């Protein structure tokens, strides 16, 4: 799904089944914090979230050591160091929403956003995927006039990697679904320089109007 001007990559069957089950079980027992989190100052945004941490020590201290195998697995299994030139996360957090909550369209800070979909009994027809929009829409179109680029379905044990500058949002959940849709999010930067330095990138988005957007910190992360 990647092109010369943007990255949207999907990986399935990411974790071994017994590890995926352990992660999903931990997610089902997570105590969520519900509040007003937003990356766009002009929009209201409420959903459930938990901040895991920015370092391995902090993540372990906060009781989320079980998310670390995801990062260690995917960066080696999919050769992130060579493909994306990333070898470390900036922070890890979790988001969740149910029917009736519509996450806002927003941009992320950093170079890449990675979303892991851990719920093993989730049905794609319930919705809850991630909508990614054309990055030019914010500059050229009026509010709510975004052009959809890609819908990545919420599927068990799936990983989504995409450029953080791409506008995106968590997909709404259908009324017939009474379950909690939850994800684990990893924010990452290109090692040693930003993504403009990668050979397969040549986009003048840094320093543009996108760069002046409000970038969230820690618990201000929007729902993906």
What CATH architecture do you see? Sandwich
Query: Helical residue percent?
Result: 10-25%
Question: Using only CA atoms, what is the Rg?
Answer: 16 Å
Under CATH at level 1, the class stands as Mainly Beta
Please name the CATH topology: Jelly Rolls
Number of strands: 10
CATH superfamily: q2cbj1_9rhob like domain
Helix-strand topology string: EHEEHHHEEEHEEEE
Major sheet: arrangement of strands: 1-8-5-10-4-3-2
Helix count, DSSP H or I runs of 4 or more residues: 5
What is the terminal-to-terminal distance? 19 Å
The largest sheet is: 7 strands, antiparallel
Form type: globular
Keywords:
alpha+beta, Jelly Rolls, 5 helices, 10 strands, three-stranded antiparallel sheet, 224 residues, seven-stranded antiparallel sheet, single chain
Report on the structure:
With 224 residues, the chain is of the alpha+beta class. It has a single domain (8-196), classed as q2cbj1_9rhob like domain (Jelly Rolls), CATH 2.60.120. Helix content is 16%, strand content 25%. It has helices spanning 17-28, 56-61, 68-77, 80-83, 137-140; strands at residues 8-11, 33-36, 46-53, 89-97, 112-117, 130-133, 148-152, 158-163, 168-170, 181-188. Strands 1-8-5-10-4-3-2 form a 7-stranded antiparallel sheet. A 3-stranded antiparallel sheet has the order 7-6-9, with no helix packed on it. The protein is globular and about 40 Å long.
